Amino acid sequence: MRNNFRPNIRLATNVLLVIGTFSVAFNLAPMARELRLKYLCNEYKYLLLRSAALTRTKDNWDNKDRAIYNWYNKSYIKKGKKIVSFYGMKPVNKDGMGATVICNYTNDTKFEL
């Protein structure tokens, strides 16, 4: 009669590896979501600061500066909408400004590149 001890050990090892892999994956998912939100907030704050800097430094606008300002303005509005939808809130208004509240709450008002 054959000994089934070795195949049973292999089967048990494979089952434990699968269970361990899923437990690691489920523990990493919340951390990945939090880091994604922080990354989006950093991008949002950068775009917001760049558009604000352009408005403060220019008294007379030429077409190139106006185009750059418009690009930053549109980009941070899009990013704000993305943050609001990623966070799971319903957008209050169309400009995505609910993202400033979310980002200040999650990042503790720190700006990092």
Give the termini distance in whole angstroms.
Answer: 67 Å
Classify the secondary structure makeup into a structural class.
mainly alpha
Mean pLDDT: 78
* Helicity, as a percent range: over 70%
Order of helices and strands: HHH
The fraction of residues in strands falls at: under 5%
Strand elements, count: 0
Output the number of helix runs: 3
> Major beta sheet, specifics?
none
User: Unreliable stretches, pLDDT < 50, 5 or more residues?
Assistant: 109-113
Radius of gyration: 24 Å
Shape: rod-shaped
Explain how this protein is built:
The chain is built from three helices and no strands. The protein has helices at 5-57, 63-87, 98-107. Residues 109-113 have low confidence and may be disordered.
